[in-house]
Amino acid sequence: MSTTTAQRTGFGAVLWDYLTTVDHKKIGILYLISGGFFFLIGGLEAMAIRIQLIKPENDFVSAGFYNEILTMHGTTMIFLAAMPLIFALMNAVVPLQIGARDVAFPFLNSLGFWLFLFGGLLLNASWFLGGAPDAGWTAYAPLSTTSPGHGVDFYILGLQISGAGTLIAGINFLVTIVNMRAPGMTYMRLPLFTWTTFVVSALILFAFPALTVGLFLLMFDRLFGSGFFNANMGGNSVIWEHLFWIFGHPEVYILILPAFGVFSEVLPTFAKKRLFGYTAMVFATVLIGFLGFMVWAHHMFTVGLGPAANSIFAVATMAIAVPTGIKIFNWLFTLWGGNIQINSAMLWSLSFIPTFTLGGMTGVMLAAAAADYQYHDTYFVVAHFHYVIVGGVVFGIFAGLHYWWPRMFGKILNETLGKITFWTFFIGFHLTFFIQHFLGLMGMPRRYWVFLADQGLDTGNFISTIGAFLMAVGTIVFLINVIVTTSKGEKVSGDPWDGRTLEWAIPNPTPHYNFKQTPLVRGLDALWVEKTEGRKEMTPAEPLDDIHMPNASILPFIMSLGLFIAGFGFIYQIDNISWLLAVFIGMGITLGAMFVRSVKDDLGHHIHKEDLDKGAGL
Amino acid sequence: MKGWMGKVRTLLLLSVLPLILSGCGKENLTAFLPKGYGAQVSLDLIVISLIVMIVVFIVVMIIYTMVLVRYRQKKGQENFIPKQTEGNKALEIIWTVIPIILLVIIAVPTVAATFNLADESDKDDSLNVNVTANQYWWHFNYQGEEIQTSQDLYIPTGEKIYLNMISSDVLHSFWVPSIAGKMDTNPENENTMYIEAYEEGVYWGKCAELCGPSHSLMDFKIVAVSPDEFDQWVEDMQNVDPEAEPETASAQEGQELFENSCISCHAIGSSPTALAPNLTNFGDRTAIAGVIDYNKENLVEWILDPEKLKEGNKMSSAPYLVNDELNEEEANQIADYLLQLKPSEITPESANNNE
């Protein structure tokens, strides 16, 4: 009996620890768990889509429900799976890579996570409360403004709340990378993953406000009777498309650039060579980020913007292929002349190169406006963006997880299971999506609940569904791998891969304060520089001293919970005015928590140097 | 330019001929077998960009394979530390400049084709059709001809037809892959595109912008007939007598029922009414409601329960259904009436027979 009680208090303590934590490493784990959870939900939705399309005129799900599934698949995968999984890696790695003890604003880091989680939960609550949004993840007006029920309202409020979290996280990483770099860590010595995080954070800073504005206008149209997107009231639905894609296009670079960063870490480590053309890689990253803002209208070639606008956006889009090509060749020449060791992290990274090249090829093809009149809104586009988002982002997340798992959890993921995951997922992926290029041009538009019999689309769709099942198998094997590794895996050293960058200079497990003494960085691949000079550890930049750390706080959780409650109030107040009470209570909780945070001094705590050797903070 | 493109086309046709035969989709639906001007222009551009991109892919794959074969770790070399190269200026310049050149090869024809397909210089001298997209059907109003049809758009071959498109509700997109690429229909502004069919035939059209539950059931057809046949069709359509008495008794009953109920939304003969599809030539339609097999049984089922066949369509809220005023026999009579509405000799058959 006594042991169970002890365990229960143990569990309570761990739960409280994670609810209040402001430690970037633990927040990374929180992002990983919740992002992974939403990834599984999005995957289930994907399987429902593919089962519905396994044969012509199937009726596995109804037409209206199918639209809910496809909307939630897209929305979940982009906002609630890919983004948080990337934030998981950023949180786990970036402060370590720059030699910092935490991010610049640990409190905000926690707030960003809880906002994202409560936003995601609010959005998914729609399944149980009368139906999910059904206007596509792009929520084009007037379909979104006229969609019956509350589905789209959940979309608006859910994304608004989680979007605020993303914006906070972006600002936090910007400031962290500008201010918290260890002595000697100049910009041109930043590891590529940190560079991509930096550029991505800047993209978030400029792109997410466009989404915020768009969502507010949509909210006013739906909940308060305005007519921003209503042609009958003098509004214009095309403005929503612009606002959405001014956010939406940078968003795809927000997703892919960190994946590029992961590959730029994994490939040099396992080829035992420094990254080829580091400077070019940095400038290519910045250039992709910059051009990413100039091309949004290539999602709108068929909207009727006219040949001049279409041509300008076509050529601007093609221009992005140049820095992307530079990256591909730099990766290839990083491998050239190397001593390439192939493990799971490396399999994902190596397979990314041809897969993403295919996605890039179709990207250039799509940029040709007059050809896009055929591709647009067909399965060709579906194939293209899955090649870049799955073949780029998801492969990158898998590579990053295998690579940094020992840093995050102290153990290496099982190699055999890792390889099974890779091969089933990789083959399944190409089986699912390659054929879709052809389905699109053979006359299958996207977001089709059924395709008709005898239109030459049967075989392709069948193959595609088989592939989807293989991808599902791969994902399940990965989950088994996580469980097996956690329960049976052996603890490894702090530097299991013979790493090059600062995050591998720390013992395992990572101490709470990361670095006992802030390291002195003497070049690119800081740890490698020391290794080549025969040292095992970093040279410290400061004497051993007390370490200042931030205090844990439950306030971020409470603030987000308040907005979650207020979200329901906003949605239901059009049915019944008394729901405004929920708005007041929710906003009261949030503003009250903000007030407490403002007036209560929280100066953090110190870990004394005498205690460091005794294992404090481990 | 034209000759060079022609050569590329022939070359490609020869190399992909087996692929086409083994299935590049259904004729008159697939974009791989263009039967109209817009589809041809798009396919030419697709081919140019595909060729350039395949060259790039081959180069990448050659380097990739060499790297993996030559530099994979060999037994006993686990501790070998290779030379730490920082970069190579010459190489980096090469792989910056060559892609730029390749992109110019794609960009020039892209801009040319984009302006070409947006050309409206001979709009005033051509046949103009005003297209209205609705949840979930298409309305076609022949400008200056006093002809309206729904779902089936009759056009003459070998001529540019200008389509002025708008939506009455949410966004839709007009797409006939074998004839031309897409153009969205927006509720606030009219979009214009032109189509030209090279050969006679019945071409599948699809809605390509998510527009609600029955988005995938919003098909329509383009019926391309010879210019002579088209002129005759126009004449027939203009001379329709909307009140003409049907031959059978059942159809006469149906006509009366129709005129007491359906007519408040559906028009027969030329009419500005566009609340629901114009049924003037319903007897020659290729499908019921765009997608359902054309026969009497299905038509009766459709009349009695449209929601079952096409979720979310507006006929489901028609008064006769809300008040449950129509029995099966009456639906049968209406079907008899509708099926005999064949005002013209020119039908989809005429488009198919002229091979």
Automatic annotation (TrEMBL), chain A:
<keyword id="KW-0479">Metal-binding</keyword>
<feature type="transmembrane region" description="Helical">
    <location>
        <begin position="192"/>
        <end position="220"/>
    </location>
</feature>
<dbReference type="InterPro" id="IPR023616">
    <property type="entry name" value="Cyt_c_oxase-like_su1_dom"/>
</dbReference>
<feature type="transmembrane region" description="Helical">
    <location>
        <begin position="106"/>
        <end position="129"/>
    </location>
</feature>
<keyword id="KW-0679">Respiratory chain</keyword>
<feature type="transmembrane region" description="Helical">
    <location>
        <begin position="345"/>
        <end position="371"/>
    </location>
</feature>
<dbReference type="InterPro" id="IPR000883">
    <property type="entry name" value="Cyt_C_Oxase_1"/>
</dbReference>
<protein>
    <recommendedName>
        <fullName>Cytochrome c oxidase subunit 1</fullName>
        <ecNumber>7.1.1.9</ecNumber>
    </recommendedName>
</protein>
<feature type="transmembrane region" description="Helical">
    <location>
        <begin position="275"/>
        <end position="296"/>
    </location>
</feature>
<dbReference type="Pfam" id="PF00115">
    <property type="entry name" value="COX1"/>
</dbReference>
<dbReference type="InterPro" id="IPR036927">
    <property type="entry name" value="Cyt_c_oxase-like_su1_sf"/>
</dbReference>
<keyword id="KW-1278">Translocase</keyword>
<keyword id="KW-1003">Cell membrane</keyword>
<keyword id="KW-0186">Copper</keyword>
<feature type="transmembrane region" description="Helical">
    <location>
        <begin position="383"/>
        <end position="405"/>
    </location>
</feature>
<feature type="transmembrane region" description="Helical">
    <location>
        <begin position="308"/>
        <end position="333"/>
    </location>
</feature>
<keyword id="KW-0408">Iron</keyword>
<feature type="transmembrane region" description="Helical">
    <location>
        <begin position="29"/>
        <end position="49"/>
    </location>
</feature>
<feature type="transmembrane region" description="Helical">
    <location>
        <begin position="462"/>
        <end position="484"/>
    </location>
</feature>
<dbReference type="InterPro" id="IPR023615">
    <property type="entry name" value="Cyt_c_Oxase_su1_BS"/>
</dbReference>
<feature type="domain" description="Cytochrome oxidase subunit I profile">
    <location>
        <begin position="10"/>
        <end position="522"/>
    </location>
</feature>
<keyword id="KW-0249">Electron transport</keyword>
UniProtKB/TrEMBL annotation, chain B:
<dbReference type="InterPro" id="IPR036909">
    <property type="entry name" value="Cyt_c-like_dom_sf"/>
</dbReference>
<dbReference type="InterPro" id="IPR002429">
    <property type="entry name" value="CcO_II-like_C"/>
</dbReference>
<feature type="domain" description="Cytochrome oxidase subunit II transmembrane region profile">
    <location>
        <begin position="23"/>
        <end position="121"/>
    </location>
</feature>
<dbReference type="InterPro" id="IPR011759">
    <property type="entry name" value="Cyt_c_oxidase_su2_TM_dom"/>
</dbReference>
<keyword id="KW-0679">Respiratory chain</keyword>
<keyword id="KW-0349">Heme</keyword>
<dbReference type="Pfam" id="PF00116">
    <property type="entry name" value="COX2"/>
</dbReference>
<dbReference type="InterPro" id="IPR014222">
    <property type="entry name" value="Cyt_c_oxidase_su2"/>
</dbReference>
<dbReference type="InterPro" id="IPR045187">
    <property type="entry name" value="CcO_II"/>
</dbReference>
<keyword id="KW-0408">Iron</keyword>
<dbReference type="InterPro" id="IPR008972">
    <property type="entry name" value="Cupredoxin"/>
</dbReference>
<keyword id="KW-0186">Copper</keyword>
<comment type="similarity">
    <text>Belongs to the cytochrome c oxidase subunit 2 family.</text>
</comment>
<keyword id="KW-0479">Metal-binding</keyword>
<feature type="domain" description="Cytochrome c">
    <location>
        <begin position="249"/>
        <end position="342"/>
    </location>
</feature>
<feature type="transmembrane region" description="Helical">
    <location>
        <begin position="41"/>
        <end position="69"/>
    </location>
</feature>
<keyword id="KW-0813">Transport</keyword>
<keyword id="KW-0249">Electron transport</keyword>
<keyword id="KW-1278">Translocase</keyword>
<dbReference type="Pfam" id="PF00034">
    <property type="entry name" value="Cytochrom_C"/>
</dbReference>
<keyword id="KW-0472">Membrane</keyword>
<dbReference type="InterPro" id="IPR009056">
    <property type="entry name" value="Cyt_c-like_dom"/>
</dbReference>
